[in-house]
Amino acid sequence: MTWPLPLGSPKRNVNEKLVDTMPHENDKQISPHDLALQAVTRRHFFQQCQVGLGSVALASLMSNGANVQAATPAANQSALKSTHFPAKAKRVIYLFMAGGPSQLELFDYKPKLQELNGQVIPESYVANKRFAFIKKDAKLLGTTRKFSKQGQAGTEMSELLPHLHKVADDLCIVKSMATDVFNHGPAKLFANTGSPQFSGRPSFGSWLTYGIGSQAEDLPGFVVLQSGPRGPRGGSALWGSGFLPTSYQGVPFRSGAEPILNLSSPQGIDSNRQRQFVSAVNDLNQLRLEAMGDPEIATRIAAYEMAYKMQSSAPELMDISGETKETLELYGVEPGKPSFANNCLLARRLVEKGVRFVQLYHTDWDHHGTPGTELGKSLDERCAEVDRGCAALVQDLKRRGLLEDTIVMWGGEFGRTPQGESRDLIGRDHHIEAFTMWFTGGGIKTGQTIGTTDEIGYNTTSDRLHMHDLHATLLHLLGIDHLKLTYRFQGRDFRLTDVHGQVFQKLLA
Amino acid sequence: MMNGPQFLVLACCVLCLGQGNLLRGEESAKAVDYLTEIKPLLAQRCSSCHGAETQKSGFRVDSATSLIQGGDTGEAIIPGKPAESFLMHAILGTNGATRMPPKDPRLTDAEVDLIKRWIEQGAKAPEGDKPLAPAEIKNRNHWSFQPIQRHPLPKVQRSDWSRNEIDAFVLARLEAEGLTPSAEADRVTLIRRLSLDLLGLPPTPAQVESFVSDQSPEAYERLVDHLLSSPHYGERMARQWLDLARYADSNGFTRDQPRVIWKYRNWVIEAFNRNIPFDQFAIEQIAGDMLPEATVDQKIATGFHRNTLFNEEGGTDPEQFRIESVVDRVSTTGSVFLGLTIGCAQCHDHKYDPISQREFYQLFAFLNNADEPKLEVPTPEQIAAGAEAARTELRKKIKELEADFEKQRPAFEAELAAWEKTVTEEQKTKLPILVTNALNLGLSMRTPELTKPLIDYFKAHEIARQKFPMLQQISDLQAKEPTFITTLVMKERDKPRETHIHIRGDFLRHGIKVAPAVPAVLPAIPAEVQQPTRLDLARWLVTPQNPLTPRVTVNRLWLKFFGRGLVETENDFGLQGSPPTHPELLDWLASEFVANGWNLKAIQRTIVMSAAYRQSSKFRTDLAEMDPLNKLYGRQSRLRLDAELIRDVALAASGLLAPVVGGPSVYPPQPAGVFDFTQDKKPWIPATGNDRFRRGMYTYLWRSSPYPAMTVFDFPDANVACTRRSRSNTPLQSLTLANDQTFVEFAQGLARRILLEAQGDDTSRMIAAFHWCFGRNPSPAELQRLLKMLEEQRATFTTDAAQKIAPPNLPSSIAPTEAAAWTAVARVLINLDEFITRE
């Protein structure tokens, strides 16, 4: 988890510059012992400290402009002193539709597929291809959904997303997404870490907070929210920090008054008593610090103060009852009722507080065609669950001026096949060659649809956007050169995009 | 993209074109001479990447034999058939091949034509054409590949500090930098340090007292020997080994179903406690099943490589994930024993180290021939009672009844389907979690494994029992069946699998076939071993000639005792790793280790007996300037305790610890909501009684949602081998220690102990509590602050609030407010930095 160090850290708000200067020694009298200790402490933060700052924030701790590289351990030298380019976006909200929503029912309308409905897919498409469930002689499946052009740009969208129609011109829809692997666990991991194996690679949010830190003062820099009937397949590895220090991992926020595990004080301990507890712990830790001189103890003192603050700041964040009636109506949420839309509103509240990366999982998009996973009623329900919240989030961020430098993105780990899957009801199998995601916000050229697919929607035919390239592009928008954000592990400089990745220019404003 | 046949057509066109353009009558007839025309040409244009020095893609061009043999993707030349020869495609860039040479100048048309004609004419060359030079192994002289040398002890100026050989090396280095070592730590610190390092548990106040008052010069040594003989030593060592073994109690990936493999954990604990030599320890884990007359224990040991993940997601290809497991086994073997990042060579030659992709798959071939069964492990009592024979008999009867049932299966399935329709959402919540999970799956998502709980549940259902009476009979007989504990093991197949290179790591793209072999840069397997097996690999890993395994192993031990390895990159002894800070010391330790028969206790004894180990961990401004990372060991390091040890010291201080060694994993309480973020809800019924208070290492480990109080303190995720844990310091840790129910229970346990066991006034009770937690007296300032806290709490606790936090079931003579005030103090003590730190 990532937070700025509280040692004299000034109050920051979200609009401040990424790199701000820390105060120099303040006016109060400081003993020589304290000075020596502070010197050690400062150096320590560069050398060993894993409280979870990116070096941007780290660099700002230096009051004398000393060379950061010299003071940073070899393993961490690539954490950034400042962004590589001016950042167009400062934070990301990733609406992850777990299971793989069907682009063919939502965004990518194919008249030819309608025409060929019920015919076996031509062999030229499926030679040398593997699928999770369907066979090579599966039949093509047209959609029953109606499509229409929306907004000034005439963006094609299906009837399943009526609220999203309203923000059509704020979106950039990419129909030519592609990924590498077709099982859920590996594909989710791939979308998040750039690797399909559970091999300890850091997730996007971890790379980002490692690279540029967080602006959130009393909240983690990387927060994960979840809605739907179950958690996403793959579990904690999806927001893990891999070989990066654990402090960069995503922190799951649960719904309700206690979003973070162990946030509430024990029974019988009220806030006042908790304050007394923290004071006693820290006074005694201070005595230990004086005896041993280990700056790690100073970090722990800071951690206890921060934890205490979080005990009130996190529930405050989760409590949406202070939002206007109009806002609640916009999202279609009621205080105290968990939902995807509720999480969208929380996402806005989190980025307002300076959280760097918020990821929302909404599960159960795996529409194979069994009861509960079919492209009829089940898909209606999934769409109804997310449609209003997504649109509201875009509108709400926009009117607050936050959309300018916040990326919002929507999509699953893969899409679904043009072939139908013959189960009890109608469905489609996992598809990695072409699927759709949408993007909006900081630095993204909106009001456009990018990429085309062939006449049945099987392959991309232009502007293929592979997951690795998406990662490179997102980092670029955040001011980071994906080639330069690296971490030395097992003798190799790793990066999010591994040996791949090219910035996808068409997405950029 | 074009598919295969399209490419081939295009490639043929290019070749034909070449013919039309280039061939003039007189040249096409002329015989091409290999020695004067082909060999020099290829040597000049290709050998910088495909010659004696480097063989990219396992291919070299400087002899006719190696040309025809080809590289990792297969043969390069089919004599007489240029259109089918990979070499031609490579120099033309056709048929999907990357054009060679990759940069200008390319081969001229005339040169291409020459090669083509030579192939056409049968690729003739003098028999026994030799390469220009034998293959060179790059970077063979890198330090870690050199034999271990025993250097003479360095000369030091100061004569009153060293206690053994280690100190001479450490001191010489410090003196060279003009630094002095730190003073020896006080005795309380020493016993706490030793106890935490060797057992993972703090000393009791009585142990501290006896050590502090023992004035004999042998007191320290006696303490070390005492600790090394404790059964908890095996636990401490085992948990560190389990990090390397990526041990967990579930299969990982999406479903993350439970698995039973704790017998392997037991084996590791016992192996350390019996102090079996490390070479034997390694051999049994890699290939115990292949040892002559392998014992059950030796088979259990092979669980080491069964700790890989297993994907149970619907629609997966089992072979794909079997291969991924083998890849992981190769990488893990590399990092655990050799300290090499062999895994980097899965898709291409290692970028830095002398390990080719071919060598990766040669190692893969050793590990590719095992089946992966479950082993049943009857207890000695079961064996004596003839339980196995009894079960065979019962099973025979059951089988007959099951055959009867199978005849009626369609009827059973119809009943099940009918029943499913009647289950309401509310009823679902009351069913066992795995049954509910199965019910919630769509029909075609149901794999046999996932529906088993549902079918088993319905077989026991009233409806089924009435309609199918044999089910009752079967279950009656099954109830009599003895059950045996199982564990996952390796079992070598009679007929080995073929191993091919996987081109770019893709298991569907086979390159050439390879046989088991070890990397050429390391000592070879003895020539008399004809067809080396997994057992030969295991033995090779721990031959005294292997320079890496001993170095890597002692370095990891050093890391444990000093917080930093002599080679800082403990998982990378290759070219990109950091060189040792004290190379002679590393080699001295490695040679000592091997010379003493790979004796783990002995080498650790030597380390902790040193003056270097015994130093104070107090910060020094001079060292902070000169050696801020403490690479020269001018003091000891303060180390935050490992995740599971934080639980252990709290258990010990609160007097709640159930010191049972070994056994299945247990379920201590964890906060609600842990499984909100997993695909399936996991069964987790908090243990009552002893199992609630077991050491952290026995906590059940779900890979998709590991125990939060341990993850927050950097417990590894068990997906890949973890050779070193990070040590973070975050507010989430503070929340855990402050508020987690488990730690509140520990605080209550400590308070109960204070109230019932400590004597005297507040001050003496406080001192007793301090001793339980830290083994020392509080300073006056510490004592004063704690007493202030106590007073503050006493004065303000209402009875109502007090009853919520006070330890349960105290004698009624103790007022709840008094008990609550002490609990509040106890809570402070177990939250202090010193409590979770080894000085």
The total count of helices of chain A amounts to 15
What's the main sheet of chain A like? 9 strands, mixed
Strand neighbour order, sheet with most strands of chain B: 1-4
Instruction: State the end-to-end distance of chain B.
Output: 62 Å
Radius of gyration of chain B: 33 Å
Beta-strand portion of chain B reads: under 5%
For CATH, the homologous superfamily of the domain at 91-257 and 322-507 in chain A is named as Alkaline Phosphatase, subunit A
Average residue pLDDT of chain B:
91
Helical percentage of chain A: 25-40%
What coarse outline of chain B follows from CA principal-axis ratios? Answer: globular
State the total count of DSSP E strands of chain B. Answer: 8
Can you offer a commentary on this structure?
The complex is a heterodimer of chains A (509) and B (839). In chain A, a hairpin with a 2-residue loop joins strand 16 and strand 17 (492-495). Chain A is an alpha/beta fold. In chain A, strands 1, 4, 5, 6, 7, 8, 11, 12 and 15 form a 9-stranded mixed β-sheet that branches. Chain A has a domain at 91-257 and 322-507: Alkaline Phosphatase, subunit A (3-Layer(aba) Sandwich). Chain A contains 15 helices and 17 strands. Chain A is globular, with a radius of gyration of 24 Å. Mean pLDDT of chain A is 83; it is low at 1-32 and 39-78. Chain A has helices at 32-47, 55-61, 68-71, 103-106, 111-115, 123-126, 162-166, 184-193, 204-212, 271-292, 295-318, 325-331, 340-352, 377-399, 467-477; strands at residues 91-97, 147-150, 155-158, 172-178, 222-227, 251-252, 357-362, 406-411, 415-422, 426-431, 435-441, 448-450, 452-453, 460-462, 465-466, 486-489, 492-495. Chain B is mainly α and 839 residues long. Among the domains of chain B are: 4-120, no CATH class; 276-376 and 486-543, no CATH class; 409-467, no CATH class; 739-838, no CATH class. In chain B, 50% of the residues lie in helices and 3% in strands. In chain B, strand 5 and strand 6 form a beta hairpin.
